[in-house]
Amino acid sequence: MKYRTMSDYLSGFFPGKVRKIAVSAQMGCPGCCTYCNNAAFSPAYSLTPGLSVTEQLEAGAAFTSNKGSIYGYLAYFQSYTGTYGPTSKLISLYEEALRFPLVKGLVIATRPDCLDNELLDYFQNRFQNRFQNRFDNRFRNRFDNCLDNRFVLSNAHQGAESVRAESVRAESVRAESVRANSVGGYSASRVYDGFFPEDFPEDFPEDFSEDFSEDFSECLSEKPFLLIELGVESTLDRTLAAVRRGHDWECSRRAILELAGRGIPVGAHLIVGLPGEGMDDYLLHARRMSGLPLSTLKLHQLQILKGTRMEEQYRAHPEAFSLLTPEKYAEAVSLILRELRPDIALDRFVSVSPSSMVVAPSWGLKPAEFAAILERFF
């Protein structure tokens, strides 16, 4: 099965390879999720107390320096909650990251309940760029996104209130998706960040490479890239309450619409295998994700980590957990991909935490090894 990768998505913004460097705002987190231990997925340098953003970026750049040439970096505010804390302090940290050599933008991981209006205004004004606006301003009132024969997102860049749902013909979705992905250069799926027009205006350019080849890099240098990565984790309120997430599904939905309505690319993070969820629930997650203006989706399997409340629960009542094998997880991912809107880019399928921190399940698989298992289900 062909799916859109994160590299596919980023190639619509950058003329060369970009690499994430994980950093931490070191501002903490308002939640106490039962499954979370930041040390399990954060580089040691990003958790070192007192280390500045610049020092973290220097450490990360040195660590990845042997992985080949790149066009630039994306500073990835991954640990804890990247928008939690005084707005002025957060903005100073983001600006410090943007001043680091070769940093072309930010990816900020956060919670849907930690986005205040002042920070949203900053994101909207600081990070929108001419590459996006050049097309949005010409056609933003002309296109609809056909979603799996169920939904149409209208004028998504105009604001959250413009999102509406109605029935559409699946044939129209397929025809326009094929056309959008077949044009030369920077395809329509990239220009619109995943929003396919139901019908193209007469002056819609057929060859985006001709339109952008000369000033593409210059457009990006004026205002940097931004992706907000929201920890949705589940679309079921009962699950979110059980893991003490501290917000409900409606909070996630509204945050996604608000960000997309401001023209800010937004991704979501889901955990597959949370207690009490099964295959039907995973399909529901995919349908709900597909009905929202998401650009990217990151998946990973549930891991019970040392030092968490979930570890205590698991040791006391292991029978309450149905931990997934690699094969069962691959089956779940394959079902999600079949249900997911095809323009949403898949950022990741598995989480690889240090084995010393994992209580269960102990897979011992690298991402490439899991990818080979996943291929069997297509």
Verbal overview:
There is one protein chain. This protein is 37% helix and 16% strand. It is an alpha/beta fold and 378 residues long. The protein folds into 2 domains: 6-128 and 223-375, TIM Barrel (Alpha-Beta Barrel), CATH 3.20.20; 139-218, no CATH class. It has a 7-stranded parallel β-sheet with strand order 1-2-3-6-7-8-10. The chain has a two-stranded antiparallel ribbon with strand order 4-5. The longest helix has 14 residues, at 326-339. The radius of gyration is 20 Å and the shape is globular.
Entry summary:
The protein has 378 residues and is of the alpha/beta class.
How much of the sequence lies in strands comes to: 15-25%
DSSP helix fraction:
25-40%
User: Strands of the biggest beta sheet: in what spatial order?
Assistant: 1-2-3-6-7-8-10
DSSP, total strands: 11
What's the helix and strand layout?
Layout: H1 6-10, E1 18-23, H2 53-63, E2 72-77, H3 87-98, E3 103-110, H4 117-127, H5 130-139, E4 144-147, E5 151-154, H6 170-182, H7 188-191, H8 208-212, H9 216-222, E6 225-233, H10 237-242, H11 249-261, E7 266-272, H12 279-290, E8 296-301, E9 304-305, H13 309-316, H14 326-339, E10 345-348, E11 358-360, H15 367-375
Parallel strand pairs: 1-2, 2-3, 3-6, 6-7, 7-8, 8-10
Antiparallel strand pairs: 4-5, 9-11
Helix pairs in contact: 12-14, 14-15
Which descriptors would you attach to this protein?
378 residues; alpha/beta; TIM Barrel; two-stranded antiparallel ribbon; 15 helices; 11 strands; 16% strand
